[in-house]
């Protein structure tokens, strides 16, 4: 026990939080709540114990903050991540309700071994905003999951993923509804990254209107000093007889507009970074095949519904990994914070 105590003391001593940062800490066996106002917070956890464990963290509206970390018997490790606290906890429309006040932390993994959880305000944290639809959204309730809901787990402490994706949103409604871009734009600070991925619900949007709406979003982000990044939409699980995705699967809209192609062209013309999630998710699905790729989405056997658009938790994690990899390939400044 003396050896274990010394090991734990060393972990706790490293990277101590300054006293004036007002950290709050606790130990919880399952879930815990921190009474803090809206803002960005660093969560620092010490994991481990006498027995082997595997511990992860979900926060707020089922956002994955830390994928399960395996620890051997007698091993202690430290991990940290930066997250946002807001109301509503989930999507900006509040369709799942306001959530619970404060910061909610839930332990995940097959054998959680938490030692200490510390929460510290980080008001100057750089932010990664996500402007998108249900394919990226923070779903408070099962079974749906968004890829941006899983994105925080790919970053160590530093940037806060602020996911303002909204179910049903198109480029038209995201600009028109005061709960969406009108709310997000004033929060953007110089240097913040803004991922723009809207396409799935632009089913009847003409190419000219779609281009104009994307230009408006880009101009609004730039006016705040933010860095817009175009993200093509994740594919739908729609296969043809040839084993390849159909135009519907590749997010070509009802008017025949190839929305991902327009996004790529807008990124090229505006000299913006592009994360081609359409191409990467297409390669993933077609590489796996129609049957083997279904677990990325909601299935009747596992989730009670077949849904060729919305993601399982596993699918959200896999698609978030594709976004993280693309951020590295595009050499985005936020890539330096990615976990390795």
Automatic annotation (TrEMBL):
<feature type="domain" description="SGNH hydrolase-type esterase">
    <location>
        <begin position="135"/>
        <end position="290"/>
    </location>
</feature>
<comment type="similarity">
    <text>Belongs to the 'GDSL' lipolytic enzyme family.</text>
</comment>
<dbReference type="InterPro" id="IPR037459">
    <property type="entry name" value="RhgT-like"/>
</dbReference>
<dbReference type="GO" id="GO:0016787">
    <property type="term" value="F:hydrolase activity"/>
</dbReference>
<dbReference type="InterPro" id="IPR036514">
    <property type="entry name" value="SGNH_hydro_sf"/>
</dbReference>
<dbReference type="Pfam" id="PF13472">
    <property type="entry name" value="Lipase_GDSL_2"/>
</dbReference>
<protein>
    <submittedName>
        <fullName>Rhamnogalacturonan acetylesterase</fullName>
    </submittedName>
</protein>
<keyword id="KW-0732">Signal</keyword>
<feature type="signal peptide">
    <location>
        <begin position="1"/>
        <end position="21"/>
    </location>
</feature>
<dbReference type="InterPro" id="IPR013830">
    <property type="entry name" value="SGNH_hydro"/>
</dbReference>
<dbReference type="InterPro" id="IPR008979">
    <property type="entry name" value="Galactose-bd-like_sf"/>
</dbReference>
<keyword id="KW-0378">Hydrolase</keyword>
């Amino acid at each position: 026990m003396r050896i274990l105590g010394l090991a734990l003391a060393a972990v706790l001593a490293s990277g101590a939080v300054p006293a004036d940062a007002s950290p709050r800490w606790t130990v919880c066996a399952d879930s815990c709540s921190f009474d803090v106002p809206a803002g960005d917070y660093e969560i620092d956890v010490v994991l481990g114990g006498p027995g082997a464990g595997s511990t992860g963290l979900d926060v707020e509206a089922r956002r994955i903050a830390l994928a399960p970390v395996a620890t051997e018997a007698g091993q202690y490790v430290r991990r940290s991540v930066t997250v946002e606290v807001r109301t509503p906890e989930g999507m900006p429309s509040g369709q799942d309700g306001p959530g619970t006040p404060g910061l909610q932390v839930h332990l995940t993994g097959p054998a959680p071994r938490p030692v200490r959880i510390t929460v510290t305000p980080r008001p100057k944290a750089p932010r990664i905003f996500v402007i998108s639809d249900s394919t990226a959204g923070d779903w408070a309730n099962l079974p749906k999951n968004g890829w941006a809901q899983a994105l925080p787990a790919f970053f160590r402490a530093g940037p806060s993923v602020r996911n303002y994706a909204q179910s049903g949103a198109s480029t038209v409604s995201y600009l028109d509804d005061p709960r969406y871009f009108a709310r997000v734009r004033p929060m953007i600070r110089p240097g913040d990254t803004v991922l723009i991925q809207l396409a799935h619900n632009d089913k009847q949007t003409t190419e000219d209107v779609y281009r104009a709406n994307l230009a408006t979003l880009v101009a609004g982000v730039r006016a705040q000093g933010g860095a817009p990044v175009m993200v093509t939409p994740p594919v739908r699980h729609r296969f043809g007889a040839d084993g390849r995705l159909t135009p519907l699967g590749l997010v070509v809209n009802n008017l025949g507009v190839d929305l991902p192609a327009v996004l790529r062209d807008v990124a090229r013309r505006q000299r913006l970074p592009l994360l081609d999630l359409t191409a990467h998710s297409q390669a993933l699905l077609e590489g796996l095949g129609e049957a083997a790729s279904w677990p990325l989405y909601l299935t009747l056997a596992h989730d009670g519904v077949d849904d060729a658009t919305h993601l399982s938790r596993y699918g959200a994690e896999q698609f978030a990994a594709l976004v993280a990899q693309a951020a590295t390939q595009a050499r985005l400044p936020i890539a330096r914070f990615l976990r390795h």
